[in-house]
Amino acid sequence: xxxxxxxxxxxxxxxxxxxxxxxxxxxxxxxxxxxxxxxxxxxxxxxxxxxxxxxxxxxxxxxxxxxxxxxxxxxxxxxxxxxxxxxxxxxxxxxxxxxxxxxxxxxxxxxxxxxxxxxxxxxxxxxxxxxxxxxxxxxxxxxxxxxxxxxxxxxxxxxxxxxxxxxxxxxxxxxxxxxxxxxxxxxxxxxxxxxxxxxxxxxxxxxxxxxxxxxxxxxxxxxxxxxxxxxxxxxxxxxxxxxxxxxxxxxxxxxxxxxxxxxxxxxxxxxxxxxxxxxxxxxxxxxxxxxxxxxxxxxxxxxxxxxxxxxxxxxxxxxxxxxxxxxxxxxxxxxxxxxxxxxxxxxxxxxxxxxxxxxxxxxxx
Length: 365
Ligand SMILES: Cc1ncc(COP(=O)(O)O)c(C=O)c1O
Description:
The protein is of the alpha/beta class. The chain has 2 domains: 20-40 and 261-364, Aspartate Aminotransferase, domain 1, CATH 3.90.1150; 46-258, Aspartate Aminotransferase, domain 2 (3-Layer(aba) Sandwich), CATH 3.40.640.10. The protein has 12 helices and 13 strands. A 7-stranded mixed β-sheet has the order 2-8-7-6-5-3-4, sandwiched between helices. A 4-stranded antiparallel β-sheet has the order 9-10-13-12, covered by helices on one side. Helix 3 (66-76) runs parallel beside helix 9 and helix 4 (89-100) crosses helix 5. The N and C termini lie far apart (63 Å). The model has no long low-confidence stretch (mean pLDDT 96). Bound molecules: pyridoxal-5'-phosphate (PLP).
């Protein structure tokens, strides 16, 4: 027998895979400002932690990653039963749809947001409800989430791709009335002023997801975690791959979490660079959204004063041809005239500013 398309499951037939930002194979020669990675290396503490674990690689890892869960729960002042760790926070988002959605239990998301929510809902064969934002500033109307009819609702805060933060009051209003599970995806919360951690005590139907890919510089390691009530965590644990976090990831993540000095230092550098980028762009009259993340969402203006999807596309292509990778999102009218620029180190950002000046200058000719 040979493989035939008829062997595919119904969910896979209608499925569209996630499309990540470009990841150059050689890595080195491009300035990567397109997938919100951290420009600094991870904590130097990682080296000894990984080296010390090498000989143990013949053994399976501890399935629930108890020590790492302990470390995370101590950091956030929670119990270890309120923590689940995953192979990146994408793994946790996937577990959420596995456990709390199906053909009858719908998934909701604010549109546009992180497009993986749609992917994990579709793999589960679950209908997706797209709730529009209230305005172009990506404001959330709590009533539109409460009345969405979803059983599982994803909210990104700070929002991607805009960087906008939402208040605890907004979440409290939603959680008080929403009948189902609310996931607040806080992938970028370490760069923000507010987060929803204080609501975990109040609402047992809240799941907060965090990643170590951004603020801890561990995108290549794949480590994320979920925080919720012990009841919800035990449900998620039932669907988790038994060995979803390998030995190296467990010890490396613990070492990085414990190095608070390095974490604060690199995070503050990124926030400083973010503010420098915002003021540069504003000087050129580019509209920017206030960002609580490690990226800035901005509407480019060319030398003729024009904005719009064609201008954003032109800038994206101009920079790509000079091996500076940023992101633009032509699929949605609220994002099509904008670009998203991840925060790099000072040197890379200075090169970016030079190229942006050239782009503006070129437009004048
Ligand atoms: C909003 C959001 N959530 C989750 C993730 C995934 O993070 P991880 O690398 O932990 O899978 C990303 C990655 O870009 C993201 O932008």
